[in-house]
Each structure stands twice: as C-alpha cells, then as structure tokens.
Automatic annotation (TrEMBL):
<dbReference type="InterPro" id="IPR009097">
    <property type="entry name" value="Cyclic_Pdiesterase"/>
</dbReference>
<dbReference type="Pfam" id="PF13563">
    <property type="entry name" value="2_5_RNA_ligase2"/>
</dbReference>
<dbReference type="GO" id="GO:0016874">
    <property type="term" value="F:ligase activity"/>
</dbReference>
<keyword id="KW-0378">Hydrolase</keyword>
<dbReference type="InterPro" id="IPR004175">
    <property type="entry name" value="RNA_CPDase"/>
</dbReference>
<protein>
    <recommendedName>
        <fullName>RNA 2',3'-cyclic phosphodiesterase</fullName>
        <ecNumber>3.1.4.58</ecNumber>
    </recommendedName>
</protein>
<dbReference type="GO" id="GO:0004113">
    <property type="term" value="F:2',3'-cyclic-nucleotide 3'-phosphodiesterase activity"/>
</dbReference>
<feature type="active site" description="Proton acceptor">
    <location>
        <position position="125"/>
    </location>
</feature>
<dbReference type="GO" id="GO:0008664">
    <property type="term" value="F:RNA 2',3'-cyclic 3'-phosphodiesterase activity"/>
</dbReference>
<feature type="short sequence motif" description="HXTX 2">
    <location>
        <begin position="125"/>
        <end position="128"/>
    </location>
</feature>
<feature type="short sequence motif" description="HXTX 1">
    <location>
        <begin position="43"/>
        <end position="46"/>
    </location>
</feature>
<comment type="function">
    <text>Hydrolyzes RNA 2',3'-cyclic phosphodiester to an RNA 2'-phosphomonoester.</text>
</comment>
<comment type="similarity">
    <text>Belongs to the 2H phosphoesterase superfamily. ThpR family.</text>
</comment>
<feature type="active site" description="Proton donor">
    <location>
        <position position="43"/>
    </location>
</feature>
<keyword id="KW-0436">Ligase</keyword>
Length: 175
C-alpha cells in the first residue's frame, strides 16, 4: 500500500530546549551508548495511529480538532533506559493531568477509528538515544527542564536515504 502514511501525535519542546537537551545528552552519554536522535526530531509521542490511509488520516484530524483542553506545563526531570527497545529516554517524573488527558483522548480517537493501540500503559517519554542495547549509565537525578505545552502536532514519519524525517501535518492549539 503506497498511499498510507505513518502518523503520530506528539508534543515537541521548543527549539532552544531541543538544543539544550542535545548539549546535555552529549555531556552525559558517551558516543557508544546509542544513536542520538536529531535535535529537531526530539518529541514526546501522545498517540501512535501508525500506517493509515488518507481517509483515516482525515478522520483522525477531524476528531483531533474537536479536542478542547487547557495547556499545561511539562517538566522533564526523569530519565531511563529500556534495553529491549534500545531506547534511552527523558520524561516527567510525574505526568501532569493535562498530558495524560490529551494522550488518552487521542488514543481513544485512534482506537475508535480502527487504529490498533498498544496495550502497554502510556509512559510519556522523549527518546534521546536509539540502538542503546548495552549497559547505559543514567545521569543521577537533579536535572530538570520545563516548557509550556500550548499545542499538539500530527506528524508523518518518513524514512528515506537512511534518515527518518518528521513532517508536520497540523498543529492544534490548547486553550
Ligand atoms: P519511541 O520514541 O519510543 O520509539 C515515531 O516513530 C514515534 O512513535 C516515536 O516517538 C515512537 O516511540 C512512537 N511509536 C512507534 N511505534 C509505536 C507504538 N507501537 N506505540 C506507541 N508509540 C509508538
């Protein structure tokens, strides 16, 4: 099926914060720890509809446009390593209610639209490193960044010439 697109909804740190996170990552993790995600690709996935047709994409966009909820502050003060998926991540030690509510709504809309959703509980995270299969020392607690989440975004994930690019399809404002 060549007319399907790999979609995900996410919140994205502002560009200056993406740059700060990349600098911190370079200071904290040795090069052999894993493959760094490009600064512009740092994001926190809310829901993953996966490969969908143009028709289903239109439905998902229509449903997303109905979401009404206030913005919220997101703190990034926790990190971890999932060896099985080879992911080193950064996330909130405590998820704000707004984040959980938004993710739950988008996941429910995706499920209702026939997109199979992971049975795993939502663990909000920003992937910093991929292919991190060996032992990785996680920095001790004490780091913290925050940013206001004022909107969420639908991205298309495209893989070409050995690189993953995320194309912004649409933003929706939070109130
Ligand atoms: P990851 O960073 O933990 O790999 C684009 O691929 C985004 O969608 C990534 O943030 C990725 O999470 C997420 N993603 C990929 N497959 C997923 C799945 N089956 N369920 C939830 N999120 C997924």
């Amino acid at each position: 099926m060549s007319d399907s697109t790999r979609l995900f909804f996410a919140v994205t740190p502002p560009e200056p914060l993406q740059q700060s996170l990349v600098k911190w990552r370079a200071d904290q993790f040795p090069a052999e720890a894993g493959r760094p995600v490009a600064a512009a690709n740092l994001h926190l996935t809310l829901a993953f509809p996966g490969e969908v047709s143009a028709e289903k994409q239109a439905t998902l966009m229509r449903l997303a446009s109905r979401i009404r909820q206030p913005g919220f502050q997101l703190t990034l003060d926790d990190a971890g390593h999932w060896p099985r998926s080879g992911v080193v991540w950064l996330g909130p030690a405590r998820s704000p209610r707004g984040l959980l509510q938004l993710a739950e709504m988008l996941r429910a809309q995706a499920a209702r639209s026939g997109c199979q959703q992971s049975p795993q509980p939502f663990h909000p995270h920003i992937t910093l490193l991929r292919n991190a299969r060996g032992k990785v020392a996680i920095p001790p607690p004490g780091f913290s960044w925050h940013f206001p989440v004022t909107h969420f975004t639908l991205y298309a994930s495209c893989f070409s010439q050995g690189r993953t690019r995320y194309q912004t399809l649409q933003h929706w404002k939070l109130d």
